[in-house]
Amino acid sequence: MNKKFTAEEKLNLLFQSVSMNEVELAEFCRKKGIYPSTLEKWKQSCLENIDGQPGKKFKKKEKQLKQKIVKLEREIRKKDKTIAETTALLVL
Fold first, then answer.
1. Domain encompassing residue 75
2. Are 60 and 47 part of one and the same domain?
3. Could you read off the pLDDT of 23-81 as tens digits, one per residue?
4. Number of domains the chain is built from
5. N or C: more exposed end of the chain, with fewer CB within 10 A?
6. Is residue 90 very low, low, confident or very high in pLDDT (cuts 50, 70, 90)?
7. Where do runs of H (alpha helix) occur along the chain?
8. Contact 46, 21 (CB under 8 A)
């Protein structure tokens, strides 16, 4: 069940499975070597991309980057203060 599918293959499998009931879907997934939950994840991913909503991975990465920016800005302010203090001491 570790077969890698291309985006086109995933979409094709989703189209084939859309009108199936649970029993048919289970049989279909067994034949194709995938889990029904995998199909559901692919479906959600497609809907998020069609809807224009970023996926969970993108949101998580965006949040991490924002936190990093805040941290770096804080470090810059701290270093600027240190430089200003050092300059003031050198002038005296």
1. 56-92
2. no
3. 999 999 999 999 999 999 998 888 877 766 666 677 788 889 999 999 999 999 999 99
4. 2
5. C
6. very high
7. 7-17, 22-32, 36-51, 56-91
8. no
